[in-house]
C-alpha cells in the first residue's frame, strides 16, 4: 500500500503533454502510461506501433490491443495591448488504435495495425481576434499498416511494414481582418478534403543483450498528404467585382513528418521496469502551408511555418503490484517544432512537460483492461505569428498563449 | 485498494475541469485599471459622429463600431460595468421611414460603375425598415443624435415625432426620446452617468460648410430660433450653451470633451481639386484668347459709356485670365459688385470644391466656358477686327459658366468657418479646464490624418477619399477604423487625466468601406 501511495505521488508530480505540432502521441495505453515509451518494451500488441521488431518476442500466439483516448485540450490567448482574450472550445478528440499480431513460428510474427499518430482539433471563437489565421481546424490521419517481425537470433529481431494513410482536413479562417458582406458578416473560407490517401512505411529492430535489458530503434517514414481538388467554400463575400473570391477547388500538401525513436528498457526485478525513449521528429519538412486555388483570380495562400526538427525525451516506469494490478507512471519533455515568430494559433504549442500514469487490471489470464491518463503542462508564452500579410506588409499576430491538455484513455489487451 | 481508485478518480476529475489559466489574466481583472475614473455607467453625448453614423446613414454595423461602443468594450476590461446600450437601427440599409414613407436616404456602398471605376452609390439591395414611429423603450448610453447642433441638445421637443416633418424635431432622437418634450441632455442626465464623453458643435459649422456656405454666419445673434439649418452658430451663444451642457454632465461624472475638427480636413471638401481643369495647349490658348476677348469687349463697353480708358482697362484686366497647358483652376461665380461687375473669377489656391459637385457638368464646361457655336461666331467677328453688337457681347459674357455658391467654399466662407471653429474650440477648451475634464483635440488628430496619415500595423490611415481608410463614403463621417482612431485618442487622454490603464483598440481589425453592387 505504501508503494502504491509513493507511485501516486510520482503521478502527481509529473505531468505529460502530447506532442508538439500536430503529432498526437497516444498510440497505446500501456506505453502512454509510461510516458509514451515503448520502443524497447515487450509488453503487448502496442509494439505494432512502437517497434514491430518486438512483436516476435511476445509470448502468446495471438495478441490484440485496442483502445481509444479522449483528448480534452484547450488554449487561452490574450493580447494586453488591446485587452483581447479568446479561448478555444475544441471538440473532444478521440484518437484510437487497434493492433493485432499472430505468431506463425518462434522466429516469425505477422501483424496488422491501425492508429492515428497525427491530428489536430482546434476551434476558436468564431471571428476572434486571430480569425484571419484560423477559426477552426480538424486534421485527421488514419494509418493502417501490415507488419512482419522476424527474429534473426534469439536476442535480435527486426520488423516493419508498409503504411497506408487516409487523411482529411477541414479548415476555416476569415479571409482577412476586415472584409465583410453588407451585414458585417466576416468573409471566410472553408477548405475541406477527405479520403486523401498516401503511403509510407516503418521499420525497427530490437536487441536483448541480456535478459533484463532491451534496446530498440524504430523509424517511421515521412508521408506527404497531398490534397487535390478539395472543396473551397467562400462565405459572406460581398457582391462586388472588387473581390476575387468565389467557391473553387484547391490543392495543398500537408507533411506528416518522419520519426526516429531509440530507447531502452531495464527489468530491475519481477516488479519494476524502467524505460527510456528518445524521439526525433523531422519537422523541417513543414516549411509552409500553401493553398493553391483552382480559380486563377484568387491569389494563392502562402503561410510560412518553418518548423524545425524536434526531440522528445520520455521516461517510464512500471510496477507489477500483484497478479491483478500493474501500475505505471511516466514523464516526457516535448520540444516544440514551432519557432519564435511562427507561432500560429492553429497549433499553438510551446515546449511542454508531460505527466502520465495508468494501470492494467488483469481480468483473466487472457484479458486485461488498460487505463491511462496524460496531463500536459505548458507555461505561459508570449509569442507571435509574423508572416500574415496585408497589402504586402507583414502584420504580426501577437499575444500570450497557454495550452493545457488532459487525456484519459482506455484499452483492452488480449493474449491467446 | 479502493482508496487508490478514489485518488485516481479525484485526480482525473480535477484535471478535466481545469481550463488553461494565464498568470495575469485579463479575464480575472488583473491587467488593467480604471484609475480615478468610474466607467460603470458611461454615457456618450453628441451628434452623428457619436452615433456611429457613416456612409451617409445610420445602420447597425456602423453603430456597433461607434467610438463610444469601442470605448465601452475597453472600459469593460478595467472594471465591472453596467453594459452599453445603443438605439440600434433595424437594418444595415440605413434609411429612415416616417409612417412607411422614406425620409432619409440609404447608406452608400462602394460599387463599380459602368466605366469600371469604383464610386460610392446608394445601397439598393433592401428597403429600409427603421420606422421612427416605432419608439424604442428604455434608456440608451449612446446619446449621439445625427444632425444635432449644440443648442439642439437642450431643446425640448427635439424628439417629438410630430415635429419631424416640419424640421422642428430630429427623426433619430424621435425614436428614443423618453418623452415628446424631452431634451437630449435631460435624457442623458437621467441615466446618472458616472463617466461621459461630449462631442458636440460640429454641425454648428458643418451645415454651413456642406451647403457651400449658402447660410449665414449668425455672429452676434443669440436667438437660436431664428437660425436656418445652414447657418453658423454665434460663437458667444455656442459658448453659453456648451457650458450649460458640459457643466450639467460634469456635476456628477468625470469625462472627456472633444474639439471640433476643421472642416477642411474632411474629404468632402478636399477630394475634388480646384484645379482639375485639365487643358491641352490648343484649348488653353483658345480659352486665353476667349478671355482676352471678354476683357477687350468689356473695356470697350465701359469706354463707350464714357469711362476713362485707363480705368476701364484696369477693371477689365481681371477678366483676361491666362490658361496654361495642364491643370488650371476653375472659375466660380461671385456676387456682382462694382469691383467685379461680371460676377465671376478664377478660384484661388485655398478655395474648395465640394464632393457632391456634378462631375459630368465639370467635364462639360461647368467651371470654365461653354464654347458654343454662337460664341465662336462672336469670337470670329472679333478676330476679324470687327466690333460686336451689345447682344453679341452678352452672348460672349454669358458663355462663362462659373461654379455656383452651393458647390464651393470661397475664401470668405472659409474664413467664417475657420473663425467659428476656432472660437468653438476655445470654448470647449475653457470648459475642459474649468470643469477639470479631459480634452481630446480631434482637430489635431484629423489634421494629422490629412497631412501625413497615422501609421498602424497594416499600413497608414489617411483622409484620402475611399482609399485612405479613415473616412466613410459620405466624405464627412468616419469609418469603423477612423472611429477606432478617435477612440484611441480618447483612451490616451483618459489614461493621462484619470490615472487609469485602459487598453487601446486594434485599429487594423476595424474595417473601412463596404463593397456592394446592389445599388440604386
From TrEMBL, chain A:
Main localization, broad class: membrane
Membrane topology of the entry: Multi-pass membrane protein
UniProt signal peptide: none
Annotated GO CC locations: cell outer membrane
Pfam families per record: Toluene_X (PF03349)
Protein name (record): Long-chain fatty acid transport protein
GO MF annotation, one: long-chain fatty acid transporting porin activity
Keyword Signal: yes
InterPro entries for this protein: OMPP1/FadL/TodX
Family: Belongs to the OmpP1/FadL family.
The entry's keywords: Cell outer membrane, Membrane, Signal, Transmembrane, Transmembrane beta strand
Location relative to the cell: Cell outer membrane
Keyword flag tRNA-binding: no
UniProtKB/TrEMBL annotation, chain B:
GO molecular function: hydrolase activity, acting on ester bonds
Keywords: Hydrolase
Entries under InterPro entries matching the protein: SGNH_hydro_sf (IPR036514)
Full protein name: GDSL-like lipase/acylhydrolase family protein
Keyword Hydrolase: yes
Species, as recorded: Christiangramia gaetbulicola
Amino acid at each position: 500500500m505504501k508503494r502504491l501511495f509513493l507511485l501516486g505521488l510520482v503521478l502527481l508530480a509529473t505531468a505529460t503533454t502530447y506532442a508538439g505540432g500536430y503529432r498526437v502521441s497516444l498510440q497505446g495505453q500501456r506505453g502512454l502510461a509510461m510516458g509514451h515509451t515503448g520502443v524497447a518494451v515487450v509488453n503487448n500488441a502496442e509494439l505494432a506501433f512502437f517497434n514491430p521488431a518486438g512483436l516476435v518476442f511476445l509470448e502468446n500466439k495471438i495478441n490484440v490491443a485496442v483502445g481509444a483516448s479522449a483528448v480534452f485540450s484547450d488554449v487561452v490567448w490574450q493580447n494586453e495591448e488591446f485587452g483581447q482574450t479568446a479561448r478555444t472550445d475544441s471538440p473532444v478528440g478521440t484518437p484510437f488504435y487497434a493492433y493485432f499480431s499472430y505468431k506463425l513460428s518462434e522466429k516469425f510474427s505477422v501483424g496488422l495495425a491501425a492508429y492515428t499518430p497525427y491530428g489536430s482539433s482546434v476551434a476558436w471563437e468564431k471571428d476572434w481576434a486571430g480569425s484571419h489565421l484560423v477559426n477552426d481546424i480538424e486534421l485527421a490521419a488514419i494509418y493502417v499498416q501490415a507488419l512482419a517481425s522476424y527474429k534473426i537470433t534469439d536476442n535480435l529481431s527486426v520488423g516493419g511494414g508498409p503504411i497506408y494513410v487516409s487523411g482529411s482536413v477541414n479548415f476555416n479562417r476569415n479571409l482577412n481582418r476586415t472584409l465583410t458582406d453588407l451585414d458585417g458578416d466576416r468573409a471566410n473560407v472553408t477548405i475541406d478534403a477527405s479520403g486523401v490517401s498516401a503511403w509510407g512505411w516503418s521499420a525497427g529492430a530490437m536487441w536483448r543483450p541480456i535478459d533484463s535489458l532491451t534496446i530498440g530503434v524504430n523509424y517511421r517514414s515521412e508521408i506527404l498528404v497531398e490534397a487535390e481538388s478539395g472543396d473551397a467554400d467562400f462565405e459572406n463575400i460581398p457582391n462586388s467585382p472588387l473581390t476575387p473570391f468565389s467557391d473553387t477547388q484547391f490543392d495543398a500538401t500537408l507533411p506528416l513528418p518522419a520519426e526516429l525513436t531509440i530507447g531502452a528498457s531495464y527489468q530491475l526485478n519481477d516488479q519494476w521496469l524502467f524505460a527510456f525513449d528518445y524521439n526525433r521528429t523531422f519537422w523541417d519538412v513543414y516549411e509552409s502551408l500553401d493553398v493553391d486555388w483552382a480559380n486563377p483570380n484568387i491569389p494563392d495562400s502562402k503561410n510560412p511555418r518553418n518548423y524545425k526538427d524536434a526531440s522528445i525525451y520520455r521516461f517510464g516506469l512500471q510496477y507489477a503490484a500483484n497478479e491483478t494490478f500493474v501500475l505505471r507512471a511516466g514523464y516526457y519533455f516535448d520540444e516544440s517544432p514551432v519557432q519564435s515568430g511562427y507561432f500560429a494559433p492553429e497549433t499553438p504549442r510551446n515546449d511542454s512537460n508531460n505527466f502520465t500514469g495508468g494501470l492494467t487490471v488483469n481480468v483473466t489470464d487472457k484479458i486485461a483492461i488498460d487505463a491511462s491518463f496524460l496531463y500536459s503542462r505548458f507555461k505561459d508564452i508570449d509569442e507571435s505569428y509574423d508572416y500574415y500579410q496585408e497589402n504586402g506588409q507583414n502584420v504580426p499576430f501577437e499575444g500570450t498563449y497557454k495550452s493545457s491538455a488532459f487525456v484519459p484513455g482506455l484499452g483492452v489487451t488480449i493474449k491467446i | 485498494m479502493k482508496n487508490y481508485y478514489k485518488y485516481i478518480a479525484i485526480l482525473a476529475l480535477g484535471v478535466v475541469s481545469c481550463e488553461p489559466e494565464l498568470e495575469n489574466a485579463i479575464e480575472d481583472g488583473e491587467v488593467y485599471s480604471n484609475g480615478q475614473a468610474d466607467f460603470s455607467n458611461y454615457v456618450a453625448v453628441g451628434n452623428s459622429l457619436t452615433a456611429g453614423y457613416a456612409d451617409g446613414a445610420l445602420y447597425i454595423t456602423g453603430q456597433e463600431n461607434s467610438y463610444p461602443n469601442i470605448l465601452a468594450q475597453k472600459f469593460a476590461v478595467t472594471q465591472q460595468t453596467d453594459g452599453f446600450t445603443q438605439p440600434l437601427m433595424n437594418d444595415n440599409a440605413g434609411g429612415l421611414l416616417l409612417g412607411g414613407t422614406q425620409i432619409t436616404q440609404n447608406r452608400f456602398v462602394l460599387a463599380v460603375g459602368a466605366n469600371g471605376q469604383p464610386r460610392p452609390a446608394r445601397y439598393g439591395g433592401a428597403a429600409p425598415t427603421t420606422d421612427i414611429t416605432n419608439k424604442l423603450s428604455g434608456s440608451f448610453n449612446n446619446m449621439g443624435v445625427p444632425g444635432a447642433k449644440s443648442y439642439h441638445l437642450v431643446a425640448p421637443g427635439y424628439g417629438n415625432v410630430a415635429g419631424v416633418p416640419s424640421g422642428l424635431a430630429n427623426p433619430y432622437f424621435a425614436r428614443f426620446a423618453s418623452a415628446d418634450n424631452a431634451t437630449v441632455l435631460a435624457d442623458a442626465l437621467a441615466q446618472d452617468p458616472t463617466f461621459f464623453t461630449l462631442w458636440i458643435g460640429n454641425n454648428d459649422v458643418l451645415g454651413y460648410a456642406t451647403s457651400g456656405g449658402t447660410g449665414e454666419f449668425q455672429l452676434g445673434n443669440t436667438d437660436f430660433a431664428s437660425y436656418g439649418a445652414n447657418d453658423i452658430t454665434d460663437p458667444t451663444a455656442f459658448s453659453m450653451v456648451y457650458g450649460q451642457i458640459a457643466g450639467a454632465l460634469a456635476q456628477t461624472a468625470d469625462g472627456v470633451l472633444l474639439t471640433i475638427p476643421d472642416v477642411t480636413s474632411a474629404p468632402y471638401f478636399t477630394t475634388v481639386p480646384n484645379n482639375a481643369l485639365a487643358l491641352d495647349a490648343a484649348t488653353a490658348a483658345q480659352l486665353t484668347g476667349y478671355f482676352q476677348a471678354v476683357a477687350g469687349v468689356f473695356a470697350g463697353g465701359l469706354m463707350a459709356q464714357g469711362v476713362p480708358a485707363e480705368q476701364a482697362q484696369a477693371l477689365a484686366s481681371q477678366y483676361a485670365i491666362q490658361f496654361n497647358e495642364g491643370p488650371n483652376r476653375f472659375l466660380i461665380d461671385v456676387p456682382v459688385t462694382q469691383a467685379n461687375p461680371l460676377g465671376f473669377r478664377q478660384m484661388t489656391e485655398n478655395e474648395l470644391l465640394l464632393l457632391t459637385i456634378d462631375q459630368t457638368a465639370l467635364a462639360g464646361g461647368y467651371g470654365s466656358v461653354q464654347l458654343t457655336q454662337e460664341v465662336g461666331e462672336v469670337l470670329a467677328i472679333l478676330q476679324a477686327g470687327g466690333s460686336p453688337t451689345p447682344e453679341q457681347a452678352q452672348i460672349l459674357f454669358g458663355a462663362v459658366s462659373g461654379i455656383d455658391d452651393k458647390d464651393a467654399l470661397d475664401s470668405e466662407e472659409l474664413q467664417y468657418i475657420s473663425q467659428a471653429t476656432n472660437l468653438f474650440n476655445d470654448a470647449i477648451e475653457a470648459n475642459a479646464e474649468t470643469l477639470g475634464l479631459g480634452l481630446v483635440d480631434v482637430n489635431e488628430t484629423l489634421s494629422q490624418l490629412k497631412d501625413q496619415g497615422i501609421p498602424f500595423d497594416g499600413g497608414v490611415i489617411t483622409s484620402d477619399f475611399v482609399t485612405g481608410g479613415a473616412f466613410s463614403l459620405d466624405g464627412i463621417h468616419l469609418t469603423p477604423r477612423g472611429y477606432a482612431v478617435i477612440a484611441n485618442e480618447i483612451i490616451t487622454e483618459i489614461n493621462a487625466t484619470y490615472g487609469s490603464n485602459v487598453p487601446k483598440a486594434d485599429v487594423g481589425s476595424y474595417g473601412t468601406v463596404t463593397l456592394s453592387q446592389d445599388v440604386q
